[in-house]
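**Reference record**
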Amino acid sequence: MALPRFSPRTVYTLFALAHAVGGFAILVEMTGGDWDIRWHIRRLVEVFWTPPHTVLYSGLAIAFASAFGAHLLQLLGPVPPRPLRVGIRVALIGLAMQLVAGGFDTWWHATFGVDDALSPPHVLLIGGMVVSAFGFVSGLVVLARASPFWTTAVPSVRRLLYVAMPAAFVALFYALWGFSWVFTYPGFTKPPFLPELWQRSIVGVLFATLLPFIALSAARLVPWWGGATATLALVTIDVTLVDALMGSPPDAASLALGLVLILVPAIVIDFVVKRYPSERARRVTTPLLGMAGGVLGGLFAGGPVLAMTGGLGSNPSVLFATMVETLLRAAGTPATLVAASADGGIGRRVT
């Protein structure tokens, strides 16, 4: 039986929708990953199908279906130009890695019971997350900028891609950070590699390095004003959501302060990057965002990593001390400068 043939308009529109759905789905997956880390630290019920694993693998399944569906469309109608297919192909490879890791992790749980952070299936899983997140980010950026593509596809779908881009950037942040973290924390059943103070310092540096890289890239590559602001707002909302799921949401004062400290620099960065898109402007905006990233790491207990060591929210003096520590570290270390030079790289690779 012959396969049905779609019109170019239908194929191109569905191809774009697959990118948008995938961008949202990988953020759902990364949220489940954050929740899963904290679930392990609390030593809650240890079976494979925990609520965090359900969220994680549901997001993975939707993302895989969208990427695989984009490839199946090539059998049903005209094929989009090759440069537009590279990102989704990379994403599919990363998602396949994660599916293999999921089966590996199921066997690992059944064989060894409680597993550790630094385990083969987890390294494969998070490595696949990095690959798939980068694939979706690059695919969304290239597709949104491909004006000839939108003479065939339904133009209104382009706006959905614009909305999905901050979600994909946040997912890439989580994936990069998680891959870095898994090599600094050996597991949930073993003592940490490093004393708590050093662990907190590493978290502050990771935030101060990765947040500028991701947010500045979003400011440059999202084709509407507010890429950095939307991305950092979404990070804040997502971290707070997982805190609430674990029964420890930040108090209203800390949340309000965190939003101000992270969004005001982001707004400034969006303005400067769009108004003055030069290397000199990034030298000014990157340390600002690095400082904000360090503060965010302190305010929200560094997300899952500091939650592992007991968190900070219950002790205001420790919270303040860690805020100051991460702020100074973000402002004074070379991490923000590394992010400044790295920021331009993603733009050059995918545009």
The mean pLDDT is 75. Residues 106 and 114 are 11 Å apart (CA to CA). The chain has twelve helices and no strands. The longest helix spans residues 8-41.
